Every structure is written in C-alpha cells, then in structure tokens.
Queue: 2 jobs
Job 1
Amino acid sequence: MTTGFEALNAGDTIDGPKFAVSGESIRLFCDASLDYNPLHLDDDYMKGNFGKTHFGGIIMHGMNNFGLISRMITDWAYPLGALHRRLETRWVKPVKPGDTIQPTGVVRSKQVSAKSRWVLIDVMVRNQAGDKVATGEAMVEFPLD
Amino acid sequence: MAQAQGFETDFWKDANLRKVWDDIVPGEPRKSIPYTLTREAIELYCKAVGETHPIYFDEAYARTTRFGGLIAPPAIHILLMFACTPADDWMRSPGTVNAGQSWSYNVPARPNDVITLQARALDKFIKRERLFVVHDNVFFNQRGEVICSGRGWTIRPR
C-alpha cells in the first residue's frame, strides 16, 4: 500500500496491547528468552540491595517491554506495507507482578531519504497507575516498491 | 520445554567463571556459538509477548506476503542473545541490570536459520556509583546476511 505514508501526520497515535504481568508471565519470558537471571526468578535474592537500588521482589525483564513495543510497531506497520527498522528504549521504572502495562506510540515526523521513506515514532510504556516505565523511539520504513 | 539443548538455567552455577566489570575489556570479542532457530522457539517467544500475527505462524499466509514465508518477530534477538552465548558469558551474571537497548533490523530471522553472533563490549564507565558496560552485537544468518545489530547498556553487579 503506497497511500499509508501520505495519510500519516505528526501527532497520530498508536495504541499497543495491554499486558498483564504475573509471576507466570515472567517465568514464561524466562523460558522464551533463555534469560534466567535471578532478578526475574528469586524473590529472596531480590529482597537484597543492588547498590542504591532496592527492588523488594522479582521484576519483569526490561526486554519484555521491548518485545511489547516491537509487537505494537509490527502490528501497526505490516497492514500499511511498512517495515519495523529500528527501536531504541530506556527503562525508567521496574515492572512487577500484578502490574498491567501498555505501550503507546506517537508519530513524531515523516522523513524522505534518497531511496526510501521513514516514519519516526516516539514510544512509551505506562503501568496501570499511568507511570512511565519505558520510553524510546522507533523507526518504520515505508518502501517505495 | 522448548529450551535450547543443554541450556543451563541456573545462572549461579557458572557465576565464578564470568568476567566481572573489572575484567571486561572493551573491544575484546565475546565467545559465541551458532544457534539453529526453530519454529518452536519462535512460537514460544511469540506466546511470551502475545504475538499473534499470522506472518509468524501461518506458512500458507506468509508465502503470500513480501517476506515469502514464515519469519520471526524482529525482537527475536532477545532470545538470540542468550542462545548464541556460552554459560560463562558475562551477560548471564546474576544481578546484571538492563538499562536500555537500541536495535536496527535488516533481514528477518526465519525458522531453521543457523544464526551466528559477533559481539563485544564496546565501552565501560562509572556513572552515579554504577558500573556500566555497553555491549555491541550483530546477528548473521547462514548466508552471512545481517539480521539485526544492536547495542545495550547494562549495569554490572559489584
């Protein structure tokens, strides 16, 4: 589809999927990612202190946020004939079992390069309290072919 | 359980073999191991993040798309990072905290790809009493095509 790019405007929003975080969802992410860091498995270990940081219990993998944002971007881009080309994220706040998180995106700008067209998207993940837990930027290509 | 063959899930077991922040030399390659990405591993990743798009599951549909067949979600590098590194890799040190990552995507990973990783620490520094390492990673398929490349910032345990 070549009309998708023209129809987009800065400020357009993308709603990502709500995701309920639980001990089970975190354990499943361990198995899917092979990341068995005790940060995500061992409540006793997480009652200790990490330098100046105190988590108080297991936390979700930061990359679970990343995977959810990426899911939002691809589910938005594929029907437009577009491709997810880049994602940069920073973790702002830990996510814990019982939280419900949701990624969202806002189109920041459209750019045209020598050989293609690009949409830059500001992304963010919030928890049920509305707190920002992750922020970042994504780049989606709208190929000319 | 669709875990990689022989994958050690107890990250404490080889903890004493892993480099601490002081030992990590920016620029020095990390050991990596080739990994065959299975359809089962892709489906397990999809389940964990709730991916339902048929491009990852439905071969007949996937053949009708620009990709010409099944692909893995772009963020499959989350799995590849651990699948392509040995048990003594410092990314597995208990208490490693991920601060952020950036990834660029080229060609998609596909079921049965034999994937290799070229990786290194790129930088290390101390900021606000925290020990940081920046790591730099490129995943290739069996044809030598870049699947994706990315950089991550981790806070190392003391």
Job 2
Amino acid sequence: MNTRRRPVVMMFRMNRVAFKVSAIFAALIVLVLAATAYVNTLDDREAAMISARNVSRMYSRTLIDSLDRFMTTRDLQSITVLVSHLARNNPVFEDIRLLDHEGRAVVSFDGPQLQPAVRQDWPCRDCHVNGGDPIIPDAEHMERITERSDGLRVLSLVTPIRGREGCRTARCHVEAKLERPLGHLQVDYSLHQTDELVANHRYKTGVAVVLAIVLCAFASWFVIQRLISDRISRLTDGIRRVTNSDFDFRFREDGEDEFSILAASFNEMTGQLSSTVRQLRRTREYLEGIIENSADLIITVDPEGLIRTFNAGAERILGYKRDEVIGERVEMLFSDPRERDLAIQQLEFSDHVVNYETHFLTKEGRVRDVILTLSRLRRRDGTPVGTYGISKDVTREKRLQRQLVQSEKMAALGQAITGIQHSIKNLLNVLKGGSYMVKTGLAKGDDLLLNEGWEMVQEGIDHMTKLSSSMLEFARERKLELTEMDLGELVRKVFVMHEPRFREQAVQLRLEIDDGLPFLLGDSELIHSVLMDLLSNALDACSWKVYEEGEEAAVCVNVESEPELDAVTIRVRDNGEGIPEELRAKLFTPFFSTKKGKGTGMGLAVVARIVRSHGGRITVDSEPGEGAEFRIILPVRGVAGDEEEGDVEEGVGR
Amino acid sequence: MSKKVLVVDDDENTVKFLSVALREGGYEPIGAYDGEEGFRKVEECRPDLILLDVMMPRRSGFVLFKQLRRSQDYKEIPVIMLTAVADLLEEDESRADEDTFERPYDSLRESLKKTIRQMREEGLVRPEMFIDKPIDPEVLVDSVRKLIG
C-alpha cells in the first residue's frame, strides 16, 4: 500500500538518481550535439560560400565572354539590354557594373555613373597599392562581402577584363596591351539564397539536435529507471520490510549483475538475521516462560523504583493486572513501604537479600505474607539497572503455622483441663466419702466415725489447697537465681535427706558421682526440687511394682560430666513399674497424674520447665515392668551458654 | 451371716468410707490396698462381691480381674469396677475423632478399651458393673444390693 505508492511519488523527485543521471547524460549530449552541429553548420556555410563563389565566378566569366562581342563593337545599348535582362530574370544579381579602366561605371542597374573610382577604395586598392601604379595581379577576381543595412549579404566580385587580340579591333582599345586589364566587371551577387539555405539547414540541425536530446534524455531516464532506480527502490522496499521484521522476505536473484549480487548478499544477510532473530526470540520466550509460569511473584524494578516486570504469579496473588502497575512505584505493593526501604538498605551491603519476610498489599487491600528474595540487576560493566524480586506467598503457611500454634495451645489447654478434671474427680471422691462419714457419724452419734469423716474432708481440702497453690506457682514466673554450684554436693544433700524414706520402703538408693564434676551455673534451689521430685517418682514407681523373689527395688542417681557437650548429665534410674509407652509422651503435661489423690500432676511439668529454663533437656526411657530412667542434660554455662537457642524461658514456677 | 464385700483401692480414704457405707448396708467389708493384696484377700476370705479400682500399684485392677475370671474358683464372684470405663464400652468409635484436642487420659482409655476387648475375645465375661468416681456411697451400696441381695 504505502510502500508501493511511495516510489511512484519519488519517481518525479529532483533528487532521484534517475533524474540526476538523466540530467547529466542530457547535458553531455547537448554539449556533444551542439558542438557537432556548430562545426557542421560552419562547414555548411563554408561549402555554400565556396559554391556561391564558384557559381558567381562562373557567371562573371560567362558574362564577360558573352559581352565580348558587344564590347568589341562598343555596343553599349546591347550590353545594357542584356544586363537588364539578366537582372530581371535572375534575382541572384543585385547589380552588374561594367567599369572602364578609370573605374567609371559604363553600365550598371542604375545607369552609367561617370564618376571615376577612387584608387584608395576597394577594389582599386587591391592592385593600386598605396594609390600608385597597379601591380598586375595574378588574381583573376577580387571579391568582397558586404552586408547591407537590410541584412542582405552581397558578394561583390570584380573580374578584370584583360586585353586580347580582338580588343584592338575596337575603337576604344586600339592600343590596348595584351593581358592588361582594360576594364572590370563588377557583379554584386545576392547571398540571400545561400544564407537562407544555410539558415534553413541550421534550423533543421537545431531541431534535430533538440529532438535527439529529448529522445536521448528520455531513453537514458528510461534505461536508468529500469536498470537502477526500480531495483534500488525494490531493494529499499525489501530493506523496509526486513526492518519491519518480515524476515521471510527474499529478493529475486535474476541475472548476474551487481544488483543481483547485492540482492544475493542481502538475502544471505536476511537469512542470517532471521535465524539470529528467531534464536533470540526463542531464548526470550524461554526466559519469559520461566518468569511467566513461575507460581511465585516475580517483579523487576528500575533504579527509580518503578515496576518494569510483573508476572502472572504476581497478577494472580496480588490481583493487579500488569498494565495497572507497570510504571508505578513499587512501594504501592508493600503494606508498609518502610519494609521495602529496609530491604533496599540491606541491598546496599550485598547484591542479594535472601528470604526477607515482608507483607504485600493486594488490589483489594488484603495483606499477604511473603518471603522476598531481592537481587540487584547489573549490566556486564556493573552499572545497576534495577532490582529483581522473587516473592513466595506464604500467607497460607503462616496461617497454618498460627493455627498450629493455636491448636497446640488448645491441646495443651485441653490436656490441662482434663488433668484438672481428673484431680477434681479424685478430690470430690474423698470429699463425698468424708461427708458421708460425717453424716453417718452424726446420725448414729458415732463420734469416731464423725471425726474420721471430718479428717477425710480436711484432707481433701488440704489437697485441693495444695493443687491450687501448685497451679498458681506453675503459672507464676520466677526469675532464676543463678550461682556457681557444686552439683555433686547438691546431689549428696538430697541423698541424705531421702535415704531414710527409701530405707523405710525397702528400696535401695545408690549414688554414682563422677569425680571432677565442673561447677554448674544454675539455680540450686530449683535443681534441688527437680532432684527431689524425680526421687519421689522413682520411689513411687518401685512401690507400685511386685518384685520377684530375690529381686530388690533400687533407685540409682548417676551424675557425670559431658566435656564434649560442656554439660553435665543427671540420670535417675529405677527398676520399678516402668511407664507404658502411651503415657510417656504425656509425662511432662501439667495436671497429668496417675496417682489419684496423692499427686497434683504438676511435678514433672515443673521439672521439665526448670530444666528448660536452665537451657537443658529432659528425656525419659522406660521398659514397662522393668523400670525407667529420667535423664537431664544441663549445660555447664547455664542459660548464658545457651542463649543462642532463643527458646529459653527465663522465669519458672517452683 | 452377712455377705462379704472386698474393696480394693490404693486410696486409703476410699477404702475407709466405702467400708463404712457397706457396713451400714449390712455387709462385711474387707479392705485391700493394691492388686496383690486384693488377690490374697480373695483367697483368704472368698468375698461375695469385689469392688475393684483400676489404677493401682502392684497389679492393676484389670490384671486382678483377669486373674479372677480365669480361675475356676473365683470366676463367679461379681465385680464392680470403680472407673468410668463403662462409658468407653458404649462410646461410638467415630466420636473420638471429633474431639479437637487429645486428652492425656485418652491413651489410658485406649489401653482400657483394648483390655476389655481382649477379655471378650478370651471369653471372659465383663465386669458386672462400672461405677465412676466420685462415688456416692449410698448409690454404691444399692448397686451391691442389686447384685448380691
């Protein structure tokens, strides 16, 4: 359409190559033809003049010969008649004058003119040089071309009439010398015809030249148009199509001239270009595909902070169409733009910010939790061209995490409630029994029964008080009072205190303490209560078990150093009942007890809490029926050495 | 001669007030404080009915129960279990899944259920009755009366 019309318009432009070449060509032809024509017309004129001269000479000669008879008879009458006859019938004669030796015109068209000629004038001066005696010239004729005021050119031919034998017969030339000019015949020939001929010829030549120029110019224009211009515009057209990404375009390669070679080279170039472009396009599509098909948000930002790329994942998660955000400030995507500034500040130190937790705002205004990894985009020379961000939407994971924490809390709460409910049930049992006994005692007047019942009620109330206060203490935070303590010493003290109770129940209590135990940073009061609790549990476990013949209930406390862990391990091992696997996981749960009215269910929960607050760990291992082993690992440096763990509770209930 | 009822429970108070209630109801109570002692007392006195706690040291209530039901001499003695396990037996299996959180005694209940299932498989007759704590002594005595008159 457009590409087709443009060359046609251009065909008539002055700056077109065809026009320029044609113009130069035409100018050259003009020069050549004009020169030729000029030379030609000069020659023509020359030839015409020669011919006119010859003819006029011939005429003059013939006229002299014709007049010979009249001159010898001096028949001037006849001469005049003849001359006027000639003048009448032949326009070529402008004048015919017969001059005597004095130069007087005896005969002329205007009649005789008896004024003698002046020797200094033409034609006399040709022979009478300096007005003196004549030098007898060899020339047969003297001639002169004059131009009259009306533009007519006249050839004046003066022919001497030389003395001959016959002249002496005439009266006038009796003494005439032979070969001596006796008079002259002057004939004025009109060159009108000759000039006309020449002019005519010149005109025709001119017309021919102009015609030739026009024809040549047109022909050259046509040829150049065909040979060069069309093909150049075809090339231009082709280049334009290739420029507009039409890489399938190919020129026809006909002929073997330079244009065909050019076309072939061009085709080759286009082919290479096309394959390069195709390869580039494939690479680009591949890379775009990676970005586009990513489930994560991929956003690139230029150095001014304007969004440049916004992939489908980002569209899906944030709800924006890319047209709405490209070119906008990236801060609009952050629920708090300061979070972006922080990430960018981190980017100043290194070219990457990995797993930065932040929040995006969707189009609807909802906040999405994302983990953002930012990288600075640089050119090869290192100049930054923007930032590249991949964000993972972790809203769901975060929610699940929160739900998990919540449900763990709920589970813990549920366990606590169940435990409390169990404790209350046992307490109620005692209270119910006690009050029954009180009632019965009263009814029967049995004081013993009444007192027993009342004691039972008191016991229940006491237990409930204990439970209540242990609940309170579990809930209350207590600051650790850390001291450098000798764990061996502490264990020995506990041993001494408990040994009698063990002996009472026929349970052997053994102590194995490593020599050279390091001092431990801890709250000695709390560690003491931990040991007491574990020993009481071990004793209970033994008292619950039916021992075989020869078997002896035994509890062993073992303390040893773990230098490679920079810790100390305390083991409390018994060979009692053991703990069924299904109960083991619940051991450290608050209010979990298998001991009915005797236990509060808080013991091991508090123990675990104290151990954790010291940065330690507590584990249990048991073979039901064979016994159990509680193992506590306490770091020597206490909480201080374990701060990096980050999950240490600073306070603890006692 | 009044009928003998054996009370086996490691909680002294329970044994005490149940004994008072049984005596008031006209029975002769015998006390035992763990499974082992309980079995010994069965052998010694041959009770007409046994009140049996489950969670006890030295042989749990179920172990003792199994022992009694397996023996030719004592398998006819009616037993009242002092636990809420009765509910478990009728409990719809699917209901447990609806619970939003696990309770610490769930595993205990599971093991009790398992024991009861085993007892059935072994052809052991289940206990005559389950009574949960807190126990109302008068209700208990009524239940004993229903079983042994």
